[in-house]
Amino acid sequence: MIKRILAAAVSAISVVLVVWWTTAVFSPTGVWPLSEQLAWRFTPRWAALASALLVAVTMCVVHMVAVGAKPPSKPTEANLPGDMAERAASISDFRRAGLKGMVMGSDGRASTSKVQVAIWSVAIVFGLLMLLLAGRTPNCPIPAGTAYAGSCPADVMDGTPFARLLGSDFRWEYLLLLGWPLSVALIRKNQVLGALERINKRMPAGTPEAGTPQAVDSGTAAATKAPPADPREVGLLAGLRQIVTDDAGHGALLDVQYFVFTLITVGYFLLQLITNPREGLPEIPATLLVLMGLSGSGYLSGGFIEPIGKPEPDSQPSTVTNASALRP
Known about the structure:
The chain is an all-alpha fold. 51% of the residues lie in helices and 2% in strands. It contains nine helices and two strands. It has helices spanning 2-26, 44-67, 84-95, 112-133, 162-165, 173-202, 236-243, 253-275, 286-305; strands at residues 37-39, 148-150. Helix 8 packs antiparallel against helix 9 (286-305). Residues 314-327 have low confidence and may be disordered.
């Protein structure tokens, strides 16, 4: 409930600010607290701020629409049922509801591969919005002799139309930056589904389907990829921990490597874009592209070297194997 109220408040404040700004720049008499028309041009900093605000409001709206009228309540030890399967189902439903569900795996845990896709999607949307706004103005220059508030700074995007930035000046490596994480996520998803199918085939009749809440306390390999039944697995910190660990909670070097190189590349992208918007989408150094490709390949290779639910050499088919369980 608090998150919905906060999201609604952010959206309402954003609408009020947009209405006020629109009235101030187009009204000759201004609007309170200004007594004169507001002169305005989107400098790189203002364009970055406005773009970040638009992205945040869009995400709030998407979250509210995805959650629906009756969002699931946050699981706690007090409101969770005693049955382990029901606990796991409740936690999974909560974690996959709303905006956060877009980066959750089928087991209700944060998916390392999906997070990479989400990070780059948000970053590129932000970049396109900023390029669309930077240097634009609704009323500059103000006619000489007209009183006004604000200022009309130099147009940093003068002679650089938005269409050219995405046309002849478009950098094709951005197809790789978004397409590669998406491909990694799809391949990892296929790895998980294939592993669960193999587990189901070797399980005796009557065993719950692998990866479902009903299998969480089955004591068999079907418990692999089952949603967590512990409410401590809910929350932002828990999600960050799941991004860089395996399903057993052990540190996963390949996951950390993939995540860190993505953050470094996105950070470079944002700094270059905000500093030099006239250059359009910044050129990504080949070194960063190679590091992202190698780390993504290493992340995928872990699923082939140590597949999910791989039986131990001397174990029975019904034995749980959690040592190499990886999220999609």
